[in-house]
Specification:
- By secondary structure, this protein is mostly beta strands.
- It has a 4-stranded antiparallel beta sheet, with no helix packed on it.
- It has strands at about 5-10, 15-25, 30-35, 45-50, 55-60, 65, 75-80, 85-90.
- The chain is globular and about 30 Å long.
- About 0% of the residues lie in helices and about 55% in strands.
Length: about 100
């Protein structure tokens, strides 16, 4: 993951896109900025997956979420039920 990167996530089952801009702060904290394809912020839950059995849910988030420990994967569910796929962080520079 670069210091700043932008992801455009398809949500399912809808075709509405979610835009996630994330940045790495001080080499430890990751800040996720989440908005819809029209640039509007919305309420969402961010699921940070750390291993097969450990997931931290950041509930009732709006605009940004600060994650202190780098997850191995994440996904987002909007308050309207729009869900992004699970995205795996393979390295510090690349997101798949």
């Amino acid at each position: 993951m670069r210091n700043d990167s932008i992801l455009v996530l398809d949500s399912s089952p809808q075709k509405t896109r979610l835009v996630v801009n994330e940045s790495l702060k001080n080499g430890k904290k990751i800040v996720f900025y989440v908005k819809d394809s029209q640039g509007n912020f919305f309420n969402y839950y961010l699921y940070a997956v750390y291993n097969q059995k450990d997931t931290i849910i950041y509930k009732d988030q709006f605009e940004k979420t600060i994650v202190k420990k780098r997850p191995s994967a994440f996904y987002i569910i909007s308050s309207e039920g729009k869900r992004s796929p699970v995205y795996y962080l393979k390295s510090k520079k690349v997101i798949f």
